[in-house]
Amino acid sequence: MKGIRRLAQQLDISIGTVSRALNGKPDVNEQTRARVLEAAAAMGYVPNQAGRSLREGSTKAIGFTIESGADTAGNGDNFFLGVIDGVQAAFSRHHLDLVVLPCSTEEDPSQYLRRMVARGMVDGMIISATHRRDARIELLANARLPFVALGRSGTPGPHPWIDLDFEGVVNRGVDRLVAKGHRRIAVGLPSNDINLGFVFFEGYKAALARHGIPFDPALIIRAGSSEQGGYQIAHELLNLPERPTAVILIYEMMAIGLYRRLNEAGVRPGRDIAVIGFREGPQSRFLSPPLTCFRLSLRDLGVALGESLLASMPAYAEIYPQGLVRRIWPLELVPGESDDFIIPR
Description:
By secondary structure, this protein is an alpha/beta fold.
């Protein structure tokens, strides 16, 4: 209170008026507010946010958990940067701050989240890298902390989520390749139990069945979500007794490593093997031949994610009346030359 008292004395107005002006209350006229803010800046006064949060029962901050580890630290993936830009754009309308919470892949994500919740750091949470059964969802529901998941989960209960259209990607990929005569179509999947891998896998089997193509488990290659993972996938495909004629990848960075290993073996994408990547990224635009892949606006996805969380928070529910959001986010096919390899009928 010392800083507020000094400001009040200097401006010859009440301590209550100074406090309300600093806190953005609507019952302070704009001239007075401007005088208070100008004087506070000149004095170097910074409100005690921790004390304010304690009084108001709100931190004005939202947490966003992301995985961090060897696979993510060393690659050039910009996925979360684009999403975070959109999320922050939604939150900035309400002067909410975004706190990125990187959880090491060497730590149990539910234990990490439990610590963050116990510290009362945020008013809401966005979780990513959802697993087939995700203990974090039950944890947040029991804590009554508003949250939204970037990714579906098999965990029961009414909780909001937005997920990419992985079924649509693999369906369009398989359809496109079958139309070019391919029947031995491999897929590169994540090596962990992240739920998107299961969604993609089930979609792949269903797409093969639609075309009357038998499922071959040898064509399922699991690797890390990185350039090195793509290199590993290509290496394993090249060593199969009967090499596939096409491959669909689930992570954008895999295409870079896959191209390198194929080129080392004298196998050219688009000429000797058809390749369909997942997401169009800055690096994929420089691959030769150009990669057939999928496009989405990461910023728009982030805005939708932020608004979905706000819709679940009582203070903002009237502004965002969407209710419980469960949404599949579409991706647009971007044809390249990497799948030009056609099998003669």
